[in-house]
Amino acid sequence: MKRALEWMLRLGLAALFAYAGVIKLIDTRNFSTEIANYHLLSALAPWLAVTLPAIEVALAIALVIAPVRWRRAASLAIAMLLAVFTIAVAQALARHINISCGCFGSASSPLTTLTLLRDLGLLLAAIVLMALTRRGARTPGPAIDSGR
Amino acid sequence: MATLLRAFALVVAGALAGLAFNAVRKERVSLALVQESTQCEGAAAAVLIDPRETASMCSRADVVIADTRPESRFAEGHVAGALHLPCDARGEVASSAMARLDGARTIVVYGERTEDARPVAETLLRRRPGADVRVLDGGFEAWSRAGLACASGACNGDCAGKP
Question: Which residue of A has its CA nearest to B47?
Answer without folding.
Answer: A37
